[in-house]
Each structure stands twice: as C-alpha cells, then as structure tokens.
Hints:
Elements: H1 9-23, E1 30-31, E2 50-51, H2 59-72, H3 74-93, H4 95-106, H5 111-129, H6 136-148, H7 153-169, H8 175-185, H9 193-220, H10 231-245, H11 248-253, H12 265-285, H13 288-292, H14 296-305, H15 310-314, H16 325-343, H17 347-360, H18 362-380, H19 383-395, H20 399-417, H21 421-439, H22 443-458, H23 465-474, H24 478-505
Antiparallel strand pairs: 1-2
Amino acid sequence: MKKFKMPSAFTILFIIIFLVAILTWFVPAGEYKYVDEAASVLEPIPGTYERIESNPQGLWEALSAPIQGFFDAVDIILFLLVIGGFLGLVTDTGAIGAGIGAVVSGFRGRETLMIPILMSIFALGGTVFGMWEETIAFYVIIIPVFIAAGFDALTGFAVIALGAGIGCLGSTVNPFATGIASGFAGISIGEGILLRVVLLLAGLGISIWYVMSYARKVKADPSKSYVYRLKEENEKHFLAQSMAAGDDDSAYTGGKSETIEPMSGRQKAILWVFGLSFLIMVLGVIPWADKFGITIFEDFNIWFKSLPFIGTLFGNVTPLGEWWFGDITVWFLIASLICWAIWGWEEMKFVALFIEGAKDLLSVALIIGVTRGISVIMNDGGLTATLLHFGEEALQSLGAVAFTDLSAAFFAALSFLVPSTSGMAALAMPVMAPIADFVGVGRDLVITAFQVGSGLVNFITPTSGVLMGALALARVPYGTYLKWVWKFIVILTIVCLVILSVAALL
C-alpha cells in the first residue's frame, strides 16, 4: 500500500477554490451594508445582512478567480519580489553568516553565554524578515561548537530552531507573515506591534530558560541528554574531521571547511544597511500621526519638500508613518541599490542576483494570487457575506477573549492544511478580519492570533521541510525531539493565550 503524501499547497488551494465554487450553488447568497462603500477596506455594519439572488460560480469563474486574485494582490506580490531580490543580494555577500560567525568566535570558551545571545539573534531574524529557511546553513557551524563544549546536538539544534521559531511566532514586521496578513486585513503593519513585541520577549525568555536548563543538565551529566545513545556517533560525526586536521579553529567549528572567517568592512556595512532598512520600514508603517498624534515626520517632510531644488529633486516622498506596500517596495529597491554601491557587483551580476532572489519568492507570490482567488469567488458568489453573517451570530456571543483564543486555535489547525504562512494569511484574513469587527476585536489582534497559531505549529509540524531537514542535519530523531519539546510547547501555548486574552480585554 502506497504511503499517503500530503499534496502541495497549490493543489490544496485549487481544491478549495472548486469546493467553494460548488458551495455557491447550494449556500444562500447575501450582502451587507458597509460603513463607507467607497473605502478601500470595506467594514460591514452589524445587523444589515440580507439575502440576495444566488450567483452560482461555474468552471470558467473558478479558473478565472486566481487570475483576478493576482490583480487584487499586485501590491503585495510586487513587494515580495523586490524584498526577495534585496535578501538575495545580502545573502550573496555572506554578511549575515559572517556576523553570526563573529559572535560564535567571540564567545569561545563561554559557550553557555552563547545560548541567550545566539537565540536572540535568530529571534531577531525571525521577527524582522521571517528567518527560517535561512537557518539551515548555520546548523553545521553551531552544533559542533556546542558538542565540543560538552553539550549535545539537541542543544545546538534548539538554539537555532527555537530562537528563529520564536521570532516567527512573535513577528513584529516580518513581511511574509505580518505584512501579508495586515495587507489582506486592510490595516498598517505597525498596528498591534507593541503586543507582538510583548509576545516576542515573553516567548524568547521562555525558550532561553528552557534550552539553558536542559543544556546545564547535559553539561553536568551527559547521560541526561535525550540523544545520549548517539553521543559517541555524534561526536565522531561532528568532531572527528577537525581533530584529525589538528586545526584549532576548525576543531571549534567542526572542520576546516566550516572555519569561521572574520567579517570584512564591506560586510559590516551591508549589515548596517540591512538593519537600517528594516528599522526605517518599521518607522514608516507605524501610524505616528493618526494613532499617537506625533507629527514630527510629517513636519520634516513638509520642510524638506520646501527646500529649493533638493525638494523637487527627491520628489513627493511619503512621510514616515503613512507608508503602504508601494512605499516599502520603493524603499527596499533603494536599499538594494545601496548594497550594490557598497559591494560593487558588476551590473550583470547585480541584476542576476536580484532576479534570483526574487525568483526564490516567486512560489510565495503565486500562492498569494491563487489564495486571493478564493476570496474572489466567495465574493462573486455572495458567500463571504453569508459566512460573515454566520460568524456574527455564532461568535459575537462568545465575547472578545473566547473569540481571540479560538482564532489562534483555528489558525493552528489551518496551518497543518496550508503550510505556507503567507498563503494562510491571504486565505483566512479577508474573512476573519471582518468577523473581528462584529465581535469588537481589533483586526490587529486577529493578526497576532494568526501568528501565534501558525508559530506554535511551526515548531512541531512534520510537513515542514526546514524542521525535518534541520533535525536530520543535527542527527536528532523526530520522535526524540517531540519528547523533549512538548513541555515547552505547552508552556508557550498557555503564556500566548494569556497574553492574547489580556489584550482582548483591554
């Protein structure tokens, strides 16, 4: 009997499109009145639902829906492609790897202190740009360090996986999670950022405590290791080559091929551009004037535009605090050009790297277009309003706390079916965000619940190629990892739900 294999995200999404099209033949169609019919984001008025004539969607409509979905999400798709190109350029310089390597080298002999520092760095990468697939390159560098220091392979694995995973769960401005979800919810990426910072810090604190507690036990008594039976094999695998080589640096990193190279001046400059790019993006998307009455960026923008020649030369720049996807896309294009000036690629090389980076995110862009097609066919068939009406009647009585916590559970369940975080955001947010309006919950809180649900599943799902590949690199069996991590997942889940509940009450 052939073993069942989960279909790809594209297949799942197309199946959903055709199922939704079939539903339009049987489920009553409806519509709402909206607060502002001309607004870019329609906010339905509770209690105004009414039935309308059915509009069944046929085969042509089902196949056309993803195409229309691309048009509807073109700003998000272009943003992803440009930021993919930017990340492709930064990756080619080796700046991020060199930066982490410098930290590893600087803490030689004080490996216990490396645990909170490295986990914080990986969490920062996760929360800023969704660092997850990129972590694969670091397992072969960091695991030998911890084994040589008297820990085990699971410790080295956990430093990377739990650190980056917490960053993704507490995504503050991660464009592939927070950005896409905010776009489809019709709010700024900056809304709800303080709550996400709280989640990030709380989760990071728990993860560091959990890993350090385990690491100290293993250091004091190696038999306490969950992979103790593999101790000799792992030491031979990760350290034998460097011992035979007789090279101090390679012994520290697990072989001459993984020797940590010092950062060059240009790599440091690229890291500065990388960090400042995301910092400015954060400043750009937080609604300073609208939410906090801070007009410093608008005032500066007015003054700058009034400067003779310079103001005209730079053009009509959108002030920080009013940025949307188009503005962020332009900014990362500028950051890419700055990287080009620093690194000095030949023009053909620069273009090739940028295109290659964009190509890495092409599948994500395609998923978003296809996923948006589900919303198109639901809207055209009158299903969206009917579903919102059901949510209005069924969920409004739950209250804000129950709705928020159940939303996190819903997103967690959905993550097993749709492993793409960006695809799931595009799939669920157009429906869940308006339901939150009925319940009296901010749309930003629904986005945070989405990140909690998907982030928790990210730690354990066997459908994650990154997780399973990293476990294989670390030589840690999946079952063994689950036995070790389940307590952490329970603690983290409780803390996240408490934070979400408190936020829903405020």
